[in-house]
């Protein structure tokens, strides 16, 4: 992205892209759930979540089942990062 200071999903490391896909396919998860699904280390998942939060596509909320943990989920901004086929399929399903 020449001349742009704004970071996008394409600019993130593969671990952050994997965490994005895990949240996309599984819905809201705790950090522990993301670690289990992605098979990445907890430290790598923490870093990936920081990067995803930094570009504004992941929201962090309180996990009410265990308030010591946080629940991570994609927000509305994440819809623009979905692959073309998935966005087309969702658009057709909505009609």
UniProtKB/TrEMBL annotation:
Alphabetized InterPro entries for the sequence: WH-like_DNA-bd_sf (IPR036388), WH_DNA-bd_sf (IPR036390)
Protein name (database record): ArsR family transcriptional regulator
Gene3D superfamilies, A to Z: Winged helix-like DNA-binding domain superfamily/Winged helix DNA-binding domain
């Amino acid at each position: 992205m020449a001349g742009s200071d704004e970071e996008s999903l394409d600019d993130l490391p593969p671990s952050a892209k994997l965490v994005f896909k895990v949240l996309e396919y599984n819905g809201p998860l705790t950090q522990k759930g993301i670690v289990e699904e992605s098979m990445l280390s907890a430290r790598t998942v923490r870093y990936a979540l920081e990067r995803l939060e930094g570009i504004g596509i992941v929201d962090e909320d309180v996990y009410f089942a265990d308030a010591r943990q946080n629940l991570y989920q994609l927000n509305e901004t994440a819809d623009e990062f979905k692959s073309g086929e998935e966005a087309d399929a969702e658009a057709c399903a909505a009609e």
